[in-house]
Design goal:
mainly alpha; Serine Threonine Protein Phosphatase 5, Tetratricopeptide repeat
Amino acid sequence: MKTLDDAIAAHPDEAQLHYASGLLRVRLGMPTKAYVALQAAVKCAPLDARYAFTLAVAKIERNDAAGARQLLMNHRGYKPAQDLLERLNAEGIWRMPTSAPFAFSRLSGAC
C-alpha cells in the first residue's frame, strides 16, 4: 500500500491511482479510506463512468441513495450504471434510504 500511496503523492491528479487505492482499501476492510479514495478518483475524472459507478455503490453502502442516484443519472449511458439505476428505482430505494444496504445486498449479485 505504501507504493500506491507514494505514487498518488507523486501524481495526485491520476484518477486510476486513486481508484486502485479505493479498491484495495475496500478489500483490506478500510471502508472510510476507500470512500475518500473513490471520491478522489471521481474528482480527477468526473466523466469516467467506471469510477462514478463504484463510488455510487459505496454511497449506497453509506445510506446515501440520493448521492448514488445523482452519480448514476450522470452516467446512464454506461450499462452497469443504467442497470443499477433501474434496479434501484424498481426497489424504491430513493423513497427508503435507510433500507439501502439491505436492498443493495439483494442487487449486488445481479450487477
